[in-house]
Write a structure and sequence with these properties.
By secondary structure, the protein is an all-alpha fold. 66% of the residues lie in helices and 3% in strands.
Amino acid sequence: MTAIMSLPARRGAKGLRVLPIVEIVTLVVAIAAPFVLSDRIDLVTLATNVLILSMLAISFDLCWGLSGIMSFGQALFFGVGGYVIALVGRDLGFSHIWGTLPLALLTGFLLSALLGAFLLLGRKTPTVIFVALGTLTGSYAAERLVSGWQYVGAGNGLSSIKLLQAGSYEFVEGTAFYFLALATLLVVYVAARILMRSQLGLVLAGMRQNEERLAFFGYRVQLFKALVFSVAGAIAGVAGALYSYHQGFIGPGNMGPGLSTTAVLYCLFGGSGTLIGPILGTIAVEVITYALADIDAIKSIWPVVLGLVLLGVVMFQPKGILGFFVSDRERIGSYGERPQRGA
C-alpha cells in the first residue's frame, strides 16, 4: 500500500506549499483576534462561536473530504453532546471540564459508532445516497424526538445551563472561553492532521481514489469508514458541549437537518479535504451572516442573499475558497509518483 501511495503531497512545480502558510496565518489571526476585539464583547462571542462551529465543520470534512461519507447528520452528535452535559449539570450539578467534555466526546463516539454500524457495516456496500439519507433521517428523527420530550425541555430546549468549571474557576463568555475553544480546536485539528498522515489516512486516501481497488486488495473499506465516522462523531459531540456551555442553551434546532446542512456548506465553501478549508468556510459564512443581518435594507431577505453567495461559490468554484490558491496536488496528494533526481 505504501509503495503505491505517497503522502504528504510533494511540492508543486514552483516548490511552494500554500496550506502551511494558510494554517500559520489563520493561527496568528485567531490568537490576536480577542485582543483586537477586546472592546467588542459581541464580536468576541461571535469569534468563539466560529471556533466551536469549526469543529463541527472539521467533523464533516473527516467524513466527506477524507473518507467519502456524505453525512447529513453531524448535528445529531453535536446536539446530543450539548444535551448530555446540560442534563448532567441540571440533574447532577456537575460541570467540571475534566468530566463533562470527555463525556460528550464518548457520547458522540458511541452514538456515531452505532449509527455507522447500521449504515456502513451491512452485507451490501451502501451507496453514497443511502448513507446521506440515513444520516439525514437520524438527525431529523432526533430533532422531532426532543421537540416533544418534556424531560429535555421539548420545543423550548434547555436553558440556564450550569457554567463550565475548571476547579473553582467558571468559564463565562469572553476571552477566557475564547481561548478554551481555540485550544480545543487546535487539539482537534492536530489530531485530525495526524490521522490524515497516518497509515489509516493512506488507506482512506486510497479509498477516495479507487474504493473498489482497495476492497480487491483485501481492505475492509466499510470498517475503516465506520471508524472515521465514529471519530468525527466524537469531535462533533465535544463541539456541541462547548456550544451548550457558551450559549447557555441547547435546543432541537441544534441537532436537526438545518445545522447539519450548514456544516456541509461550511466545508464546501472553504474547501473539503483540507481541514483548514472548513475553518475558513465557517469564518466566511458566519461573518457574512453577521454583516448581512445588520444591514437594514436587506434585513428581511439576507438569508436569500447569503444563499446566492454560497451557491455562486459552490457552482463556479467547487473546490471552495482554497481552490483559488491551492493546487489539486497539494490539496489531495500525489499517488504513484517517483521523486525526480535532484529534487
